[in-house]
Specification:
The chain is an all-alpha fold. It has 10 helices and 2 strands, in the order ααβααααβαααα.
Length: about 200
């Protein structure tokens, strides 16, 4: 079985897992980000698991759809192990970012922060194939995140779909963590290449 096909199956399995978790009536209550339960009752798993549950059918379909679009940039450039690493680290970055830097958010659920992290990662991983194009993508993502933090942005514009305000801060911490993952991978690859050339 070609590696690209295996990677595609991996990401399809991730999409299926998100949809499957959403069908459970109890997953949101036990897995969503809840600042009080994390800080006062030691339910630390919620920092990571909050990214895997959603508030509505439209919410999960939007997040899964966005993820699958980003995956088109990743399936021929990554391995399954690489996917497992970034899907472990990026959700953690989102949850910790909210916990330490956004005390105003007391509850959160959704994969959109991870989606932004995957987008950052995919852009950097695709950089060498077309630097001009992917530079524009990175600039566009940065400008979008800046807009979300501006006074022009209305976090309630999706309230009829999410039944909550958009936690745009999660997008920022996801994007930062994805960028960190991509740059760390690049640095490790360069160190390994240098070591191999010396040997």
């Amino acid at each position: 079985m070609p590696d690209t096909f295996r990677v595609l199956l991996f990401w399809l399995a991730v999409a299926f897992s998100l949809l499957l978790l959403h069908t459970s009536s109890v997953s949101l209550a036990y897995l969503e980000y809840n600042r009080s339960l994390i800080m006062n009752h030691g339910q630390w798993w919620r920092i990571w698991t909050c990214n895997w549950v959603h508030l509505s059918n439209a919410h999960v379909l939007m997040d899964v759809g966005f993820m699958l679009l980003v995956v088109l940039l990743l399936i021929d450039k990554t391995t399954i192990w690489e996917g497992l690493v970034i899907l472990s680290v990026i959700p953690l970055g989102v949850g910790l970012g909210l916990l330490f830097f956004v005390p105003s958010i007391v509850q959160y659920a959704g994969f959109s922060g991870v989606d932004q992290g995957l987008l950052s990662y995919a852009i950097i991983r695709s950089w060498s194939s077309d630097r001009a194009l992917f530079s524009l993508f990175l600039i566009a993502q940065f400008l979008r995140l800046c807009w979300e933090h501006s006074s022009f942005y209305n976090p309630y514009y999706m309230y009829h779909v999410l039944h909550a305000a958009v936690a745009y801060q999660a997008h920022t911490y996801g994007a930062i963590t994805g960028l960190f993952c991509a740059l760390s991978r690049r640095a490790l690859y360069e160190i390994k290449s240098s070591a191999d050339s010396v040997a």
